[in-house]
Design brief:
15 strands, 15 helices, about 45% helix, 4-stranded mixed β-sheet, about 500 residues
Length: about 500
């Protein structure tokens, strides 16, 4: 059953999570004004699946069940699936700013790969358990909170060496019928208004970390779960032209001796496969982030063009603003192009689904993570100082000042002051407000820090192919002084430095 936004909101009433926002206990998530923009944001993913125009990219047929499901819960089988997902995420985010539901998709695809590896290596039945859970989520059209980022404690120490073990979610006890988990996940997007949490490892693990290599599904209102969250967006703020309607809450989720039955446990001590789950999820998620921030770029491009017009400038005549707008378009479409390339050059996984090309996915995410600040700068440049100088919306109705302000703050005579002010406040909301800072931080660190992406790019880029190319054009191994250097496999023939080969040594090929 595919829910719509109203059905999703109503479905939250059947859960009773322990939620605190701004120090207050939330009795009904579905009716809490501080969370309304977040519920509306996720609702977009539900409603678009019913839109005739967008249904082809917002839904898919799940091969393992033969049922039509929301794209955000689907396992990708081809490059076409990845392209559709990328377009779907961009569509959702150009409406809502941040489409939390794609996290479910990314976790499902990473977990599909990781459980297959664990089963092959250890003879477990994690894959069967996962598929049963996935089909339940698809049939009920649920949204999951991806509880991945641990509190981490002292970051110089591995999980097993932490003085406070609860800094990482871990297995406290193993029983015949399941496990008991403890610990804290520090950043869970959409935490107050999801149906279940998918607890995931957040790093690679080594021997000694077995208790921390855990993946399982936990209902949001399971006994022992506490959610401490921030409001979603800026509900009720008349100046928040965007985030009063759409926003996202993030929450700290504490697991205090939470029991999880074995059928909902998808990894429990397999350190190597848990590490693989972390990196595979990251690649899927970074690919999705590309679409998300491209949607955000669409908002800035549209708002910038409206602001230029309201200011009385002509892009065709005023080259300096045209140059800035072209730069904003170039930034947005360049990282989105990496997402397209990652889709086309995807690789078939032994589990049966496809993985976006790791290099292109990480380059695209690295670009958006660092260019988000340039996107803000350009929006400020083309908009002018009115974005931060404009008095608050209460002055629009002040009989003592409204007429005078309207007269002097109008740009083009055919565009009313109210229209110009509305666009200015929209840009302020997206680029200057506290919500703008939130979008910047999740762009920079969401899905891993820039350093994590750089490591993945270097680890997976076929540098040896480039070395071999140059060596084939030179007298191999001959230095400028005529001496020769022996070349060891995996090392540069001149410097002796290690250089990575693509995993498996295979060239990029489109996987259909």
């Amino acid at each position: 059953m595919l829910m719509d936004a109203a059905g999703y909101r109503e479905s939250l009433r059947s859960y009773h999570p322990r939620v605190f926002v701004n120090g207050q206990r939330v009795e009904s998530v579905a009716d809490e004004p501080m969370l309304a923009p977040g519920i509306a944001g996720i609702g977009v993913a539900y409603d678009l699946a019913h839109d005739e125009t967008h249904r082809p990219i917002m839904t898919a047929v799940q091969a393992s069940s033969g049922k039509t499901v929301n794209r955000m819960t689907h396992i990708d089988e081809s490059a076409s699936d990845l392209l559709a997902k990328l377009e779907a995420v961009r569509l959702m985010c150009k409406i809502s700013g941040c489409a939390v539901r794609y996290l479910t998709h990314d976790a499902f695809n990473g977990l599909h790969q990781a459980t297959a590896r664990a089963d092959a290596q250890h003879g477990t039945d994690y894959g069967q358990r996962f598929r049963a859970f996935m089909h339940e989520v698809q049939d009920r059209d649920l949204t999951l909170g991806i509880a991945m980022t641990d509190a981490k404690g002292d970051r110089s120490k591995r999980p097993g060496a932490q003085p406070n073990r609860d800094a990482y979610v871990h297995i406290k006890e193993r029983r015949k019928n399941g496990i008991v988990i403890r610990g804290t996940k520090a950043i869970v997007t959409g935490a107050p208004y999801v149906h279940e949490f998918l607890v995931m490892p957040c790093r690679t693990h080594a021997p000694g970390d077995e208790d921390f290599a855990v993946c399982c599904a936990v209902p949001c209102d399971a006994q022992g779960v506490t959610i401490v969250a921030r409001p979603a967006g800026r509900p009720g703020d008349p100046a928040a032209k965007f985030s009063a309607k759409y926003g996202q809450s993030t929450g700290v989720v504490m697991f205090d001796d939470v029991f999880v039955p074995w059928e909902r446990v998808f990894m429990a001590g397999e350190t190597e496969e848990a590490g693989f789950l972390t990196t595979s999820y990251a690649t899927h998620h970074r690919h999705s982030c590309i679409g998300a921030r491209a949607g955000f770029g669409d908002l800035l491009i549209g708002a910038g063009a409206l602001m230029i017009e309201a200011n009385g400038l002509d892009i065709e005549r005023h080259g300096h603003v045209r140059e800035q707008m072209v730069e904003l378009i170039t930034i947005t479409e360049s990282f989105f192009a990496c997402g397209v390339a990652a889709s086309v050059y995807c690789q078939k996984d032994p589990a049966g689904n496809v993985m976006p090309d790791t290099v292109f996915a990480n380059i695209g995410k690295l670009l958006l993570a660092t260019k988000i600040y340039d996107m803000h700068r350009i929006a400020h440049y083309v908009s002018g100082g009115l974005v931060v100088a404009l008095p608050g919306p209460d002055e629009d109705h002040n009989p003592e000042t409204a007429a005078s302000l309207s007269a002097v703050l109008t740009g083009r005579p055919d565009i009313p002051h109210a229209q110009r002010a509305e666009v200015a406040r929209f840009i302020e909301d997206l680029t200057v407000s506290k919500e703008a800072g939130w979008y910047s931080v999740i762009s920079l660190h969401g899905g891993g820090s820039p350093e994590a992406m750089k490591r993945e790019i270097w680890r997976n880029y076929p540098v040896m192919e480039k070395v071999a190319l140059v060596e084939s054009l030179l007298d191999r191994g001959v230095l400028a002084d005529g001496s020769r250097v022996s070349k060891q496999p995996g090392r540069c023939c001149v410097t002796g430095c290690e250089v990575p080969e693509r995993i498996g040594g295979e060239p990029r090929e489109a996987a259909e």
